[in-house]
Amino acid sequence: MALTLEDRLAITELISLHGHLVDEGQLDRLAELFTPDVVYDVSDFGQGPLVGVAAIRAAAVALGAGNPVAHHVTNVVVREAADGRVRVRSKGLGVMADGSCGSATYDDTVVRTLDGWRISHRKLSARRVPLNGVTGPE
């Protein structure tokens, strides 16, 4: 399948919509982002993979005030993988209520559904070390 410009725009808007919905507390709209059986892997943040939209909502509610007040996504790259799936990689910035900020990478698999593009798998990886740990010559 060749992705059209319209597909790429719709996928990029899908990725961007996540921050708006979560930051506004519109957790009842998560089905606009994810497939019903989505796997949302937040293992890098001390939790196991969340399976299903209800699990994502429950985890967000349980985290409560520990959630960022702002999710910003940038550097969105959409590509068709050799296996025919559509992969999306983007960078995320989470701004906390105290003003601190963290960086993460989203690695997503998106699928076309009857309702439009949806995320079927998301892996969230924290960025805690500059250059991902690469150091100069010894």
Give a brief description:
With 138 residues, the protein is of the alpha+beta class. The protein contains two helices and six strands; from the N terminus they run αββαββββ.
SSE topology:
Elements: H1 5-23, E1 34-41, E2 49-51, H2 53-63, E3 70-80, E4 86-95, E5 101-113, E6 116-127
Parallel strand pairs: 1-6
Antiparallel strand pairs: 1-2, 3-4, 4-5, 5-6
Keywords:
138 residues, alpha+beta, 6-stranded mixed β-sheet, 6 strands
Q: Could you describe the 3D structure shown?
A:
Helix content is 22%, strand content 41%. The chain is an alpha+beta fold and 138 residues long. A hairpin with a 7-residue loop joins strand 1 (34-41) and strand 2 (49-51). The protein starts with a helix and ends in an 11-residue tail after the last strand. The model has no long low-confidence stretch (mean pLDDT 94).
Return residue spans where pLDDT drops below 50 for at least 5 consecutive residues: none
Question: Beta-strand percentage?
Answer: 35-45%
Structural class of the helix and strand makeup?
alpha+beta
**End-to-end gap:** 46 Å
Secondary-structure element string? HEEHEEEE
Let me know the average pLDDT. Answer: 94
From the spread of the alpha carbons, the general shape counts as globular
How do the strands of the widest beta sheet line up side by side? Answer: 2-1-6-5-4-3
Secondary structure: number of strands: 6
What is Rg? 15 Å
How much helical structure, as a percent, in the residues?
Answer: 10-25%
Sheet with the most strands? 6 strands, mixed
Total count of helical runs of at least 4 residues: 2
